[in-house]
Amino acid sequence: MRRLKKFDTLNSSVDSAQQQRKVPPRVALIVETSTLFGRKLLFGVAQYIRENGPWSVYFTDRAVEQSPPAWLKTWQGDGIISRIAYPEVHDVIRDRGIPIVDLNEQLRGLGVPLISNDHAAVGKLAAEHLLERGFQQFAFIGHTGHSWSDRRGEVFSRTVQAHGYRCEVYPGQGKSSDSLREAAWQTDLDSIAAWAATLPKPVGIMACTDFRAVQLLTACRLADIAIPEQAAVIGVGSDDVACALADPPLSSVNLNARRMGYEAASLLDTLMNGGSAPVDELLIPPLDITVRRSTDVTAISDPLVASAIRFIRERVSDSINVEDVLTHLGVSRTSLQNRFRAIFEKSIHDVLIDTRLAKVKELLAETTLPIDAIAARCGFRHPEYMSSAFKLRTGWTPGSYRRQHGVTSTNHRGRSAQSP
User: Fold this and answer.
1) Which of 129, 276, 279, 316 gives a 20 to 30 Å CA spacing to 325?
2) Are 123 and 111 within 8 A, CB to CB?
C-alpha cells in the first residue's frame, strides 16, 4: 500500500507539471514556397521559432496565386502569417478573432497588421547605383497602378531628378496581379521594345521586379539595344533563377525577406500574447545590390576617365595601384584626380578599391572560394587588408556577407543581427 501511494503521488505530480507546461501555439503559415522571396520569408519565421518557440506549425507547399486552403475557414488555431491575395479571407479570419500578420503588400487597408518592403528605399538604392556608374539619362519600367511598383518608380525618378537629370517612365497600362504573371509577357514585348528604342543612350533603367527586368532585356534585344553598353538594367528581388537566366546576368536590389519573416513572427507572437497591433505598417529596407553584367559598366562622357575605368575593371585581379593607372594613360595625377572627383566625387584610389570590393562581393556570393583566394583574385596582396577594407566600406565582414548571400548560405541570423 505504501508503494502504491507513493506511485499515485508521483503520477499526480507529473500530471500537474504537464498542465502547467505551456502548450505551443498553433500557427498557420500561408506563404508561397514557389518563389525565392517566399522561401526566405519562411526561413525568417523559422529563425524566430528556433529562438523563441516552440510553435506547432501548419504549413503546406504553395504557389503565389494559389487559393486559400479549405481547412482555413474552420481552423481552430492561435495565429496566422499570410501572403494570401484574397482579401475576403482576411475578413473571415479577423471576424473569428484569430491574430493575423499580413505580408502581401499588394493589398492594403484590410484592417490587419502589415509588414512590407520599404519601396522608397528600394527606388533610392537603385537610382544611386546607376548614378555611381556615371549615367545622366534614366528610365523606369514598372506595373502602373500597383502601389509597390509606383512607389519604387516615384522615388527612383525623384532621386535622379535631385541630381539634375530627367527620368523617362514606361507608359504601361494597369494590370491585375494575375496578369502580371500570365499572358502580358508577349503582348508587352513590342511596346516595350519600341519605348526602349526611343530612350536617349546610354541610359540607366530600373525595372520594378527581376521578371519585369528580364522582359525588358528581351525587348532590348528585339530593338537591337546593347546591354549594358547602351542600356544598363537593374531589377528588384534578386530572384536566383531570373537573375541567372537573364542575358546578360541581371543586377538586382536584394530585399530583406528574412527580416520580414522574422519581424512577422515576432509581431504575431506579441499579438498571440495579448499585445496590441501597431498603427502603421512596418517597412523593411533592402539589404544592398548584387551587381552582375547588366549594370557592369560606367557611363562616362569624359573619354580619359572612361579609359581609366576600363583599365581598372580589366585589371581588377592584378595588384595595380594609382601609379599604374597614370602610367597606362600617360597623364598627371592632378589632372586625372580632378576629373575623377568631378564625375564620381571620389579619388582614383577610392574607385579602385570600390571596384575590387565589388568583385569580392560577387565571389563571396557566387563561389565557395576561401577568403585568401578571393583576396588574390581581387588584387589584394593581403587577405587581412581586404577584410578590413570590406568591413569599413560595407559594414559586413566577408564571412557574415557570405553567410547572408552565399550560394551555400544557411543564414542563421538572430534578432540582434538584423543589421550587418
Assistant:
1) 129
2) no
CA 346 to each of CA 140, 309, 318, 350: distance values in angstroms, whole numbers, following the listed order: 27, 13, 21, 6
Domain 119-255+288-295 coded CATH 3.40.50.2300: yes
Classify the C-alpha dihedral 83-88-90-96 as positive or negative. negative
Q: How far is CA 247 from the centre of its chain?
A: 20
The pTM score is 0.70
The CATH topology of domain 303-405 is Arc Repressor Mutant, subunit A (1.10.10)
Phi, psi of 298 (to 5 degrees): -125, 120
The pLDDT confidence band at residue 20, using thresholds 50, 70 and 90, is: very low
Residue whose C-alpha is closest to residue 123's, from 208, 192, 204, 203: 208
Q: Which of 83-92, 121-130, 239-248 has the lowest mean pLDDT?
A: 83-92
Three-state secondary structure readout of the chain: CHHHHHHHHHHHHHHHHHHHCCCCCEEEEECCCCCHHHHHHHHHHHHHHHHHCCCEEEECCCCCCCCCCHHHHHCCCCEEEECCCCHHHHHHHHHCCCCEEECCCCCCCCCCCEEEECHHHHHHHHHHHHHHCCCCCEEEECCCCCHHHHHHHHHHHHHHHHCCCCEEECCCCCCCCCHHHCCHHHHHHHHHHHHHHHCCCCEEEEECCHHHHHHHHHHHHHCCCCCCCCEEEEEECCCHHHHHHCCCCCEEEECCHHHHHHHHHHHHHHHHCCCCCCCCCEEECCCEEECCHHHCCCCCCCHHHHHHHHHHHHCCCCCCCHHHHHHHHCCCHHHHHHHHHHHHCCCHHHHHHHHHHHHHHHHHHHCCCCHHHHHHHCCCCCHHHHHHHHHHHHCCCHHHHHHHHCCCCCCCCCHHHCCC
Could you tell me the CA-to-CA distances from 418 to 64, 107, 284 in Å, in that order? 26, 26, 10
At 216-235, the pLDDT tens digits run 999 999 998 888 878 999 99
Beta bridge pairs of residue 115: 282
CATH of domain 21-117+258-284: 3.40.50.2300
Same CATH topology for 21-117+258-284 and 303-405: the answer is no
Q: What is the mean pLDDT of the segment spanning 331-337?
A: 95
Cβ–Cβ under 8 Å, residues 171 and 132: no
Domain chopping of the chain, boundaries: 21-117+258-284, 119-255+288-295, 303-405
Please compute the mean of the pLDDT values over residues 243-250 and round it to a whole number: 88
Specify the pLDDT at position 226: 84
